[in-house]
Specification:
The structure holds two protein chains of two kinds. Chain A is an all-beta fold. Chain A has strands at residues 9-13, 18-23, 32-38, 45-50, 55-56, 61-64, 70-75, 84-91, 104-109. By secondary structure, chain B is an all-beta fold. The chains are: A mainly beta, B mainly beta. The A-B interface holds A 2, 34, 36, 41-46, 49, 87, 93-96, 98-103 and B 4, 31, 33, 35, 40-45, 48, 56, 58-59, 88, 90, 92, 94, 101-104, 106-112.
């Protein structure tokens, strides 16, 4: 079973920030939080990951709470091309630890 | 640099037929894996490999075989297809750091093979 809980769907207006929450209350101290997205039946695409600290790259920012029990993925200026299913995943050192849940279906609207 | 290439893109099989889904990567990644995705669900791990000659089972291995004779290729074999194996199959690869506490980098996925078994 997936170790994370995400809302099944969210909407966001184009140009606004999209904030996608994830709960991972049973996360262990050596486990990372990863985010992937899947655009309409393509292969999933890696977005960002973090252990304790907040992280930012060219695609998104990841905010992890101090107790590490939840996190938020932020797409700062959502575009129509960001419409996708977003997966929040907890894993250790290895990819075979990953368990995909149902994710959050983000719809960016004009 | 093609990344992860999966062939074929689409396949229709009759129950009991066999086939091999091909996966190749050109990034010299040690780690490779196969997932299946059913409608409305996330991906489930079928088999994975941490290097040439080494394979292991994931969550849903029954009905599937794999081998890893080279770093580049990781084929998935269905020996006797069943309707329950109708799904979209994704192959993925990643870098693995050396040593006993090997860390896998994020996965690179192929674009999938859509398989229908009638």
């Amino acid at each position: 079973d997936a170790k994370t809980t995400q809302p099944p769907s969210m909407d966001c207006a184009e140009g606004r920030a999209a904030n996608l929450p994830c709960n991972h209350s049973t996360i262990s101290g050596n486990e990372y939080v990863y985010w992937y997205r899947q655009i309409h039946s393509q292969g999933p695409q890696y977005i960002i990951h973090g252990l304790k600290n907040n992280e930012t790259n060219e695609m998104a920012s990841l905010i992890i709470t101090e107790d590490r029990k939840s996190s938020t993925l932020i797409l700062p200026h959502a575009t129509l091309r960001d419409t996708a299913v977003y997966y929040c995943i907890v894993r250790g050192l290895n990819n075979n630890d990953m368990r995909f849940g149902a994710g959050t279906r983000l719809t960016v609207k004009p | 640099n093609a990344g992860v290439t999966q062939t074929p893109k689409f396949q229709v099989l009759k129950t009991g037929q066999s086939m091999t889904l091909q996966c190749a990567q050109d990034m010299n990644h040690e780690y490779m894996s196969w997932y299946r995705q059913d409608p409305g669900m996330g991906l489930r791990l079928i088999h994975y490999s941490v290097g040439a000659g080494i394979t292991d089972q994931g969550e849903v291995p029954n009905g599937y075989n794999v081998s890893r004779s080279t770093t580049e290729d990781f084929p998935l074999r269905l020996l006797s297809a069943a309707p329950s194996q109708t799904s979209v199959y994704f192959c993925a690869s990643s870098y693995s750091s050396p040593g006993p506490s090997s860390y896998n980098s994020p996965l690179h996925f192929g674009n999938g093979t859509r398989l229908t078994v009638t």
